What does this fold into?
Amino acid sequence: MDIDEYLCAVTDQIRDKYAKVFVSDEIRTHIEEQASAYINDGMNRDEAYSKAVVDMGDPVEVGAELDRIHRPHMEWKFLVIILLISLVSIAVNNLINGIMDGRFIFLGPVMVHISGSHFAGLVLGLIAMFAMYRADYTVMIGRSRAIGGIFLGILTLLFALFGIDMNGDNWRMSVGSFVFSARPLYILYLPVFAGILYEYRCKNKMLISIGFWMIAPLISMCLCSYFSIPVAVFMIISEIVLLMLAIYKRWYGFDKKNVFYGIGIVLLFASVMMIFISTKVENYQIARIKTWLCNMGIVNHATDNSGGNYINAKLMEVFRKSDLIGQNYDAVHIMTNLPGYKDDLIIGTISAYCGILAVAGIMISLFLLAVYIFYISAKQKNQLGYIVGCACGIIIFFQSLSNLLIVLGLLPLTESSLPFISKGTGTMIVDYVLIGLVLSIYRYKDLRNDKIVAKKARKDIFSLEI
It folds into this structure.
């Protein structure tokens, strides 16, 4: 049996087409190295190659073993954690709707309500998660810039044409009985940006191009009459962290001084845009910023009876009154009268009904989930999986942290969400899409190393330069 016949017999046992290429190259290299050693020992070429092939063993058995190694994987521990968090989410929202809205927890109005809102979003999210798990995330190779441009273009058109005008901003869009916020959809751009960073790997003088893709979401938000300073800050900080991770991996031939200059230019441009938008800031938004400065002890600001200062004061009262475990009726009464107790301020609601320890348990679980995502990403054999996985972890971590800080009054009161827990169909689906992307990265951990990814990239004809 010659080398080509042997390789054909081995790869016939392997199901993944990209793994076939990688395995074939590796075995061919090993056979040629062994044959060269035999030739150096005095054996003629044909005998050397024949013996090297025989030394590899039975091709069917070798192929079957390699197929077992190079097969899709499911990270069951990670999936169990997600399902447990999902059950907690259902339980929390069930209790909120059943107790705080005066409805029964069992069958009847509550279950009908959950089926039409939070539970429906959770089910759609789980479906999206498994769809992403089955998808091959390496489809982003050579296409990330095209995907990013098309994604932002579609968002711009949809929210500019069909956005619901609320407080002067087209920041929500209605699809049937579901209402989608612009915020989680724009945040979904971050994994795409991670793919863009990967595309610029090993290319010099790409800092300006990377800077453009960093501010592209901000430009899109301005074009569709939606510009949220908190979302813009969230995006820019997350993108800078991703860029720092890429630089740490020595992906680019940047001079460190130029990197800081580039980041400074991006921050300057973003600041100019924010200042321009701030001239159109509503009075209630100014009041929220003043409230935050007051909470930080920077300025003195009188407490009002309806604004952000009032809400922050009431939230602090909720935390003071809440028990360690179980419901506190005074805290529940306060939360019932606050807007956003099912979504933005749900941490306060959990504290009022379930206790401080429940809040601590949920927050620790979400932070550990983000850390576990970073761990999965760091173990990847290809750099695309690493950077995209880190983007997902950054989103989960920063969203959890910012929501907690907002509720505690350490950040200005603004739209936010607690991943997997807060009410909101669009937010819920985006959270599970991120988890599905992480599962897809883990699924192909033994099937998509840098050699396979490089071969796939060279074959790609849909690569854009900007």
